[in-house]
Amino acid sequence: MNVRRRRISGIAVTAATAIGLGTLSACSSDSSAAGNTDKFDVVASFYPMQYLAEQIGGDHVNVTSLTEPGQEPHDLELSAKQTAQMGEADAVLYLKSLQPAVDEAIAQSDVKTKIDAAGLTKLEDHGNVEHDHDHGGEEHSEDEHAEEDAHAEEEHAEEGEHALDPHVWLDPVKYAEIAEGVAKSFEKADPDHADDYRKNADALAKKLGGLDTAYKDGLKSTDTKVFFTNHAAFGYLAERYGLTQEAINGLDPESEPSPARIKELQTEAKADGVTTVFYETLVSDKTAKTLAKDAGLKTDVLDPLEGITDKSKGDDYLAVMESNLKALETALGAK
Predict the structure, then answer these.
(1) What is the percent of the chain where pLDDT is above 90?
(2) What string of DSSP letters covers 74-98?
C-alpha cells in the first residue's frame, strides 16, 4: 500500500515464501503454472488484477495469481520459484506501488508483456487522510530518512516512494478505465483472439457501468455522508460518490491509533450522525470493534476486495461490491 512501512516478522516472510506460487488457475481446470499451457498465460499480482484477466481473457487465458486467497497482498514476498515462473508467462498484470516485492521482480523479469494498471488510469494522492500519523504524505528531512533507512530490511518502502493511493479498483469508473487498457494489451499481445478480448471487455464495461449507476442511485440521498473504516482504502470510492471516509488507522490497517484519534472519531460520530464502524476480512477487527463499543456504534464489513475468501460476502468482484453498497446504504441511512 502506498507510503506503508509495516514491519514483517521473519515467520511471516518465511510462510509467504514457503507457499510458493499458488495453484490458482481460474480459467483452467488444472493448476498449470504460467508458461506451461497452450493458452495465453497471464500472471496477476493479486485478486483485482486476476479478475480483470479472467473476465477479459475468458477461455483463451490461463491465469495464475501471485497472492493466495486470504493472504494480505501488501505483505507479499516472492519465492525464487514464483519469480522464475513469472518470467515464463506471456504477460504479467500488476498494480505498481501496491506490492513492492512484485514491482522489483517485474522490473528484473524479461516477460514480454508487462501491464501496469497504475499507468492505465490517473492515481491520486489521498495522503491527507493520515494527518494523525507520522508516515503520511508529508516531507521529511534527510536525517529522518537516514534513520528510517536503518530499518530497510524490515520495512516495505521508504517515505515518499509511493505517494499515490493505489486503491483504484474500488472506483468502478477507474476500474473500467484499467480494464480497457488491459484489453488493448491482450489484443496486441495475442492478436489471434483479439475479437474475443474486445467482446469480453465490452461486456465487462457494461457490468462496471451498471455498478457505477447502482452506487450513484443508492448513495444519492443519505442521512450522512461520513463513514468510518478500519483503514483508508476507500478514498476513490468516497470521492466518486460524494462521501467522506474517516479511517481509524490511516493507510496501515494494523497500526494502533492514538487515544487522541479515537476521541476525535467519537466526537465526529456524534456530530455527523455516523452509525457504523467498518472493518474488513483480511485484517483484525479488534480496533474497529473497540471504537464502536466505546462510541455506541454498530460494526459491519466494508471489503476492500484485496482478495476473495470464504469470509467474503460474494464470490467475485461484482458480488462483493454490491454487498459493499448495501452496507453503505444501511450505515449512511440511504433514502
Answers:
(1) 60
(2) GG----HHHHHHHHHSSEEEE-TTT
Residue-by-residue DSSP string for 165-196: B--GGGSHHHHHHHHHHHHHHHHHH-GGGHHH
User: In which band, very low, low, confident or very high, does the pLDDT at 246 lie, cut at 50, 70 and 90?
Assistant: very high
Residue that the C-alpha cell 457490468 belongs to: 207
> What is the rounded average pLDDT for all residues in the chain?
81
Q: Tell me: the pLDDT tens digits for 199-229?
A: 999 999 999 999 999 999 999 999 999 999 9
Q: pTM, whole model, 2 decimals?
A: 0.79
Q: What residues contact 318, with CB distance under 8 A and at least 6 apart?
A: 207, 211
Stretch 3-14: mean pLDDT: 33
Under a CB-based contact definition with an 8 Å cutoff, are residues 275 and 297 in contact?
yes
Distance from C-alpha of 315 to C-alpha of 167, rounded to nearest angstrom: 20
User: Taking the C-alpha atoms of 249, 246, 320 and 70 in order, what is their torsion angle to the nearest 10 degrees?
Assistant: 0
CA 211 to chain centroid, in Å, comes to 18
Cβ 57 vs Cβ 41: under 8 Å: no
Say if CB 248 and CB 133 are below 8 A apart: no
Task: Name the helix (H) or strand (E) containing 277.
Answer: strand 276-279
